[in-house]
Amino acid sequence: MTTVPSTFLQACKGQSPAHRPIWLMRQAGRILQPYRQLREKTGSILKLFKTPELATEVTLMPVSMLGVDAAILFADILTPVEPMGCQIDFVPGPVFAKPVRSRADIEELQTIDPPTQLPFVLETIRLVRRALPPGIPLIGFAGAPFTLATYMAEGGGAKEFTRFRRMLHADPGAAQALLEKLTEVTITYLRAQIEAGAQAVQLFDTWIGALSPRTFEQLALPHLQRIFAALEGLGVPRIYYANGAAHFLDLLPRTGADVLGLDWRCDLDQAFNRCGRLPLQGNMDPCALFADAPAVVAEAERILRQTSGLPHIFNLGHGVHPDTPCDQVKLLIDTVHGFPA
Description:
Largest sheet: 7 strands, parallel
Distance between the termini: 26 Å
Number of helices: 14
Strand content: 5-15%
Helix content: 40-55%
Number of domains: 1
Strand order of the largest sheet: 1-4-5-6-7-8-9
CATH architecture: Alpha-Beta Barrel
CATH class: Alpha Beta
Structural class: alpha/beta
CATH topology: TIM Barrel
Number of strands: 9
């Protein structure tokens, strides 16, 4: 018997589903009271990440409580970096015991074997797949090489990430060596997620907008192309989210991704004109959810009208702020689902 693809997977392929699918960026679960209670009870986000039963519970929360059209794996973009040899703690943001800033630091980094070093991620995927309702796919994900390198060189979070960009100019050979290692790790990690049951994968490039178009094309794009080429033929949609990349929007289709995720600063009319008929995902400003109910509905409907008849997956333009009113999020999802297809 043929199974009808979910609305989300149909939209990823540029098909016309029964209704406009919507899912929310990573961290949607943190607006939910059960997640906050679970986080307080465990006392450690690392314990949540590394305990498959707990990670499964968090992954399923936005599906059961909000009614989104896809689930996204509960993990962190830095998860595959730790087995490379980088000790990380979360206090609450990521802090590296030792930043990666020299050729010697880069040479010490190891490749990874997900089944032996990240079994909790793969077990979470298997548990989630068994628990998800029919028609709701699971999205796996990873951080893109440039964004991972940015965190590793910085040693954690920062107001302005400059350490890796300095390396790009001061020692381009070392910077390329780090990107090459991270590219290999990302391919291995995403392949393992797909083999475990992920039905789509997304590459998050949170800090890619810090690059100029020329630097993106010369130094970052080849690594992205290599990742998406390596995943081609595995039977799942490949999504690339480029935050702050409106100034080189025309370069994004060259990544080889099946779907492009856009932040709220991109104009969707321009995006479709510059990216052709490639399915786009986005791009409501997460802060718009702090408006009153009529304004939330109006903004959602504006985007829905703007993208009517085009291959589009409704999403926020970045992660969900932790203090976002849950009722507003549910209102957004209901508005998208109720809009004429």
